[in-house]
Amino acid sequence: MPDSVRINPSILAADFVNMQAELARIAAADFVHVDVMDNHFVPNLTFGPQMVERIQATSPVPLDVHLMISEPERWAPAYAELGAASVTFHLEAATEPLTLARRLREIGARAGVAVKPATSVESLFDMLDGFDQILVMTVEPGFGGQSFMADQMPKLALLRQEARRRGSQVWLQVDGGISESTIAQAAEAGADTFVAGSAVFGAADPAQAIAALRAEASRHHRH
Ligand code: DX5
Ligand code: ZN
Q1: pTM
Q2: If you ran DSSP here, which 8-state letter would residue 110 be given?
Q3: Is 172 left (phi over 0), alpha (psi -120 to 50) or beta?
Q4: In angstroms, rounded to a whole number, what is the distance separating the alpha carbons of residues 55 and 32?
Q5: Are residues 42 and 9 in contact, defined by beta-carbon separation less than 8 angstroms?
Q6: Strands 110-115, 193-196: parallel, antiparallel or unpaired by DSSP?
Q7: Is 75 exposed, middle or buried, given 0-12, 13-18 or 19+ CB atoms closer than 10 A?
Q8: pLDDT digits (tens, 9 = 90+) for 68-112
Q9: What is the DSSP string of 43-94?
């Protein structure tokens, strides 16, 4: 099962003024995770579509865009249009999540929905077919380098159980505090797609860090 797990390094932990070189360091990844923050939905600000378009033009791997922004209906389609492979918006910020997901798919992106730690996942059960990936945050969104919240694992397990029951192929993604010491828990709970910022870009050899995360996740992953 060569592609049963995916490792998506987050460039939030990269050197922003050396982005081209930083992207080259993660050529062995499956996707590059691009955190867009608006200083409104979360108390931090990163970049918008102009920067993401340059990342898209430069990256050796496809883009996995994570929008931590208000009014995703207004802004998310632009990220699909510039060529991002997947666009994930927050359930807490969306007024009509399924309508927005359909729009993203029409443009040609995978549609993702994310939940903050305080948000439960039961309301997503009847919407599984509407999404290509579901992101369970294991930190409060806004900053890299925070501690992994193991108390979010039951949400992943519930989603995995429900996906299995419905025969859904939806990817289950986890983001926040993922490292060689926490990734096994997330894989065992049912995640198949792993975002890691500091664990990859903070490593002396990012390619080796990606390989180690992949090996550990594969060893513990269960569909
Ligand atoms: C947090 C971001 C994450 C962040 C993860 O709001 O969504 O993608 O970059 O960073 P680490 O892996 O350092 O927790
Ligand atoms: Zn993220």
Answers
A1: 0.98
A2: E
A3: beta
A4: 9
A5: no
A6: unpaired
A7: middle
A8: 999 999 999 999 999 999 999 999 999 999 999 999 999 999 999
A9: S-B---HHHHHHHHHH-SS-EEEEEE-S-HHHHHHHHHHTT-SEEEEEGGG-
> What's the token pair of residue 20?
């081209």
Q: Specify the amino acid at residue 214.
A: R
The catalytic residue among 38, 64, 175, 192 is 175
Element (H, E) at 156: helix 153-166
35 is catalytic: yes
What's the full length of the chain, in residues? 223
Please count the other Cβ atoms lying within 10 Å of the Cβ belonging to residue 218.
15
Tell me the domain boundaries of the chain. 6-220
| Tokens, residue 16 | 């922003």
Mean pLDDT of 102-124: 98
Q: Which ligand is nearest to the CA of 146?
A: 1
6-220 under CATH 1.20.1250.20, yes or no: no
> Catalytic: 64?
no
Q: Report CA-CA distances (Å) from 185 to 41, 86, 155, 179, 181.
A: 28, 25, 12, 10, 9
Task: Please tell me if the CB atom of residue 88 comes closer than 6 angstroms to any atom of ligand 1.
Answer: no
Atom of ligand 1 at shortest distance to CA of 33?
8
Residue entry with tokens 């931090």 = 44
Q: How far is CA 196 from CA 32, 161, 217, in A?
A: 10, 24, 12
